[in-house]
Amino acid sequence: MDTAISLKAGQYVVFSINKQLCALAIEEVVEIIRVQTITEVPGIKEYISGMINLRGKIIPVIHLRKRYHMEGEPFTKKNRIVIVEEDSEDIGLIVDEVVMVTYIEEQDLEPTLEMFNTLEKGCFKGFAKVKDELIGILNKNKVLYPDLEMGVAYNE
């Protein structure tokens, strides 16, 4: 059940998607790279931009703007690919900009309100209050596998 998703104090990589601040726990991030040539692959989900070759390793790349049904924009020097690992496979997430790496205290973390999960259940683990900003802590599994997560929920 989604209540098993835990929020904990620690370092988070904070990035923007369409001026919205989001974050992943630093242990979920393998590395952050500049956007490079992406080879399109026909017949895959529209939010998967294609594949990149990173030091001889083929990595699928998900465009987070498209993943969350936002309008895409041309890449700029600020765009980055955040590489995460799932089941021993690296996957890239295209973000508008990596803003900072910051330590978030436990008292600054709040669970997700039910109203924020109506569009896509489990999209966020919760929210963090840092300075005057509100940062959505993404549920990495839901970002990577939105269809699979729904199927798992029905089997519980």
TrEMBL record:
Signal sequence, start to end: none
Q: Which GO terms describe its biological process?
A: chemotaxis; signal transduction
A Pfam family name for this chain? CheW
Q: Which SMART domains match?
A: CheW
Q: Which residues form the CheW-like domain?
A: 9-149
| InterPro entries noted in UniProt | CheW, CheW-like_dom_sf, CheW-lke_dom
Entry's Gene Ontology cellular component terms: cytosol
Q: Which domain of life is it from?
A: Bacteria
Its protein name is Putative CheW protein
**Which organism encodes this protein?**
Schinkia azotoformans LMG 9581
